[in-house]
Design goal:
The chain is an all-alpha fold and 77 residues long. The protein has a domain at 26-75. Helices cover 61% and strands 0% of the residues. The protein is built from 2 helices and no strands. It has helices at 26-57, 61-75. The protein starts with 25 loop residues before the first helix and ends with a helix.
């Protein structure tokens, strides 16, 4: 028995032109999210450290205690 041959014919599409969008790979999405999280974490930590230093300089114990409780979440590991 002979093998059947398949022949494809391509016809130009006559309809409205479509724009194809390229998907961003999962790896790139994950890495970009992790980098952005790290940048935000470091910025928030530095702002909190500056506020703690300001509270120490002004001898404001109540503000220092409140900010130091918040800072514990940044240094917990």
């Amino acid at each position: 028995m002979k093998k059947e041959k398949i022949v494809y014919r391509y016809y130009r599409y006559e309809g409205k032109q479509l724009q194809a969008k390229r998907e961003i790979s999962y790896d790139v999405k994950l890495i970009s999210r992790l980098v952005l999280d790290e940048i935000c974490f470091n910025w928030n930590k530095s702002q909190l450290e500056a506020a703690i230093n300001k509270a120490i300089d002004s001898s404001d114990k109540a503000t220092f205690m409140q900010l130091s409780e918040t800072y514990k979440h940044f240094v917990w590991e």
